[in-house]
Amino acid sequence: MSKGLPKRSEDYSLWYNELVKKADLAENSAVRGCMVIKPYGYSIWEKMQAELDRMFKETGHTNAYFPLFIPKSYLSKEASHVEGFAKECAVVTHYRLKNAEDGSGVIVDPEAKLEEELIVRPTSETVIWSTYKNWIQSYRDLPLLVNQWANVVRWEMRTRLFLRTAEFLWQEGHTAHATAEEAKAETMQMMNVYAQFAEEFMALPVVRGRKSANERFAGADDTLCIEAMMQDGKALQAGTSHFLGQNFAKAFDVKFATKEGGLEYVWGTSWGVSTRLMGALIMAHSDDNGLVLPPKLAPIQVVIIPIYRKDEEFEAISEKANEIMAELRKAGISVKYDHRDTHKPGFKFAEYELKGVPLRIAIGPRDLENGTIEIARRDNLTKSQFELASQPIAEKIGGMLEEIQESIYSKAYKFREEKTTEVNSWEEFKEVLENKGGFVSAHWDGTPETEDKIKELTKATIRCIPLNRKEEAGTCVLTGKPSEGRVYFAKAY
Amino acid sequence: MSKGLPKRSEDYSLWYNELVKKADLAENSAVRGCMVIKPYGYSIWEKMQAELDRMFKETGHTNAYFPLFIPKSYLSKEASHVEGFAKECAVVTHYRLKNAEDGSGVIVDPEAKLEEELIVRPTSETVIWSTYKNWIQSYRDLPLLVNQWANVVRWEMRTRLFLRTAEFLWQEGHTAHATAEEAKAETMQMMNVYAQFAEEFMALPVVRGRKSANERFAGADDTLCIEAMMQDGKALQAGTSHFLGQNFAKAFDVKFATKEGGLEYVWGTSWGVSTRLMGALIMAHSDDNGLVLPPKLAPIQVVIIPIYRKDEEFEAISEKANEIMAELRKAGISVKYDHRDTHKPGFKFAEYELKGVPLRIAIGPRDLENGTIEIARRDNLTKSQFELASQPIAEKIGGMLEEIQESIYSKAYKFREEKTTEVNSWEEFKEVLENKGGFVSAHWDGTPETEDKIKELTKATIRCIPLNRKEEAGTCVLTGKPSEGRVYFAKAY
């Protein structure tokens, strides 16, 4: 199965593309830039969704659904917003097909032209704030804490499976508040929810930070983000949470009667993560043999493979396998018994390695005699014999899964730390970025012009101003002008 | 709250529209025909999704995701399919906006015209079968059992919230099989899954049947369906399951190597239910006071309302309420304690009636003294005193919720039976349809021409040929020609 998977060290980009396809996660469709998320890939996304959805609900949010289409005039109401999205909008102009009169086939009916063009949502601030205008009259209607799971479309020219696709799946939270402070606290809370999800479930350490003005969401006053480090030393923005100020409230005239009897514009936030997280998950942990999945997001946590020559051996092994499965399932562990007789054990081993199943149990006739099983860990490729009498199997496997979850996180954390370098001169900046990659922690004079210049010279952007950075006076690596603290630069996905 | 809800008997249609809005289920958006599903409405849809998704997985299906856009040429590959959907297709023709040179605002960039127009999926058979071509080579790849939760767009001219909207949410199952028999069995299985869901969770009795050729899905060889009866005597198609034969396999050249070494076209099915089910749920059970929700789909099953004048009464009541909530939650019952001091009990009673909460508990100072609570049932509007010492509260409430679920079903079943009439002449047919409505069970000569004629004369269509109909020779009510059995006619949503 893993035959033909390129090595990360030789061609990281090709390795990623091939892995996504060979592990049955996703593939390109006939429509440029739109992907098909295959069942195995989708089952990982479903696990992500379930955890995120739970976390949103625990923080008081409810789900709703808003239209796919946005009237062009709505998108245009917030100036910087339309500026940010205009270049990548899919536009619906007609609503009917008909048979061509010359018999050449089906054509767009020119008579069925829409009066106003509709934009396929690239994000839903405009359509949602136009709705909120009717939902919000008084302070009693606030806060309004709504999330939506949806597909969005951004007509990207260069696409890559999961990382950048014309259509992608995501959730977008849109909240409305009576005060700036509350909205800012919500923005921070949801960034922290994302960080917790990334670290606890994806085993992905992230830097919590703030975007520079250049990298801010189109229409936001402030954008918080979580940034992760991939194995090739490039950064990946894994989630963003925006403080929208009163920008959309003003664009859509959403005011509320205050407790004190006044009338004020509402404060807003929006926040989202997308199927891009799938790309982050794959690129952060996987290896040359295939996927490495953290147990908390693995659709199958344990696979059992029988090793036998004779039918009666198979029967005895199956009996043992069924016992083990029953114990594991009782403990909430997902397990599959792969007893296909059309494939050899070696083939199956490679297949589950490719698919990133955290633990593989092999049982042969000798194991039955000895009361043992062989357990192989996917993350570090180690094998061990386990004596069934020594400990309840569910306890053993449960413990190993926890260990793997932690171990994957630690490895990624260590890697990220190694790939984070403080530099103090422009020469050093370029040298580290060129030869080592990763996060380059450097002083910056705080101007968009310097940021642009650095991007032009090195392709690196400011990934974020870390929230936990020390106050530290310094001088900008490029201009030598004064700086209040270090920011993280990196080349990024 | 329920002020202004029209009576069903006076204007059923207006009653429905108002109820959907006032109970916070959905509303129209700025885009013609596209709705906003509000948080309360969406939370009911989420409960439906969860149960259906579980049932799909239990029958071996997995979820995946396919592109929103379909190249126009794909849609055209299956002749009757494009015929069926061409008139209601939203068409994407451009992929960019720009600022107008005359400063008049944002316009569609004429230079960003797509080479081939893209259709916003009205259903996904074409894009999915074009993908299946790559997934299916051999009998070993079959059956392929995939479902998708998605939004689809059909540019309907007359829309109504939930019942007929330009965009709606649904699931669409698409399966591929080695034999016609297997595909037919799948078609039947999924129709039965829908029927079970409708009856067990929605408390909605349905007729399992087969569509006549006229009403068949565009591209199917056979369409099975479940049909429900609304309170105004109109039928509602609640779910369909299609046997696609080899039509899409032929259109997209999907062949498989058989076990015997041959090469054959694959057999297909597709099946779906949508947010239309929300409309069915509302129209089947609700009354002039508002929603009536079956407990199994109610986002809140029990609401507790304190009745008090003094603060110390409120404290004592709250203590009791918290005790009861803890017990109910332990038993998996969802419960809300509405202790808002901004609204009076009477207002709250009306609000939860409007929202269809199955059980309402009221606790006052007298109740505390007597060790009682008042329990009100939403479905039949009865109230009773319950002595807390007489039975564990979770057992009592759990039992009542079950009773309500059954009672709502029985009522709808009885109504459906009353509204089902056998007729044996054209006069009788017209008379029943006109004055009584409901299902009219009549002999039909089996021709599309007669069906068309009847529709033209009465607006009634064949809802289905019931699967459990008796073999019964007769003569067509309209033409007098021979008939093999009765079919169900009705006016329908």
Automatic annotation (TrEMBL), chains A, B:
HAMAP family: Pro_tRNA_synth_type3 (MF_01571). Keywords: Aminoacyl-tRNA synthetase, ATP-binding, Cytoplasm, Ligase, Nucleotide-binding, Protein biosynthesis. It comes from the Bacteria. The gene is proS. It is found in: Cytoplasm. It catalyses: tRNA(Pro) + L-proline + ATP = L-prolyl-tRNA(Pro) + AMP + diphosphate. Its main location: cytoplasm. This is Proline--tRNA ligase. One of its GO terms (cellular component) is aminoacyl-tRNA synthetase multienzyme complex. It holds the Pfam family ProRS-C_1. Consists of three domains: the N-terminal catalytic domain, the anticodon-binding domain and the C-terminal extension. Residues 27-294 form the Aminoacyl-transfer RNA synthetases class-II family profile domain. The keyword Aminoacyl-tRNA synthetase applies. GO terms for molecular function: ATP binding; proline-tRNA ligase activity. It is an enzyme of class 6 (ligase). Its EC number is 6.1.1.15. Catalyzes the attachment of proline to tRNA(Pro) in a two-step reaction: proline is first activated by ATP to form Pro-AMP and then transferred to the acceptor end of tRNA(Pro). Belongs to the class-II aminoacyl-tRNA synthetase family. ProS type 3 subfamily. The keyword Aminoacyl-tRNA synthetase applies. GO terms for biological process: prolyl-tRNA aminoacylation. InterPro entries: aa-tRNA-synt_IIb (IPR002314), aa-tRNA-synth_II (IPR006195), aa-tRNA-synth_II/BPL/LPL (IPR045864), Anticodon-bd (IPR004154), Anticodon-bd_dom_sf (IPR036621), Pro-tRNA-ligase_IIa_arc-type (IPR004499), Pro-tRNA_ligase_II_C (IPR016061), Pro-tRNA_synth_II (IPR017449).
